[in-house]
Design brief:
By secondary structure, the protein is α+β, with helices and mostly antiparallel strands. It has one helix spanning 36-43; strands spanning 2-4, 20-21, 52-57, 71-76. It is built from one helix and four strands, in the order ββαββ. The radius of gyration is 13 Å and the shape is globular.
């Protein structure tokens, strides 16, 4: 499960609590998964004025329902 914040300004730090789901559950694979279109449709495209996005993600074992610990990441429009 991947959750992401709406685009945030440069002064915002650690806005992981603003992260919300924007795509369906994904199956882990060894290659890259393109989530940008889903993100842009839900939250809008990051801009120079709001270049930061904060992500929170975790794994769910579909057989047992067990959830992993939350993991955090951020990205900045370059």
């Amino acid at each position: 499960m991947i959750l992401a914040s709406e685009p945030q300004g440069n002064g915002i730090r650690g806005a992981y609590s603003k992260a919300a789901s924007f795509t369906t559950l994904l199956t882990p694979v060894t290659s890259a998964i393109d989530i940008k279109d889903d993100y842009d449709k839900k939250n809008g495209t990051p801009t120079a004025g709001k270049p930061k996005v904060f992500f929170r993600y975790f794994y769910i074992n579909t057989a047992t329902g067990e959830k992993s610990a939350d993991m955090f990441a951020s990205a900045k429009l370059g």
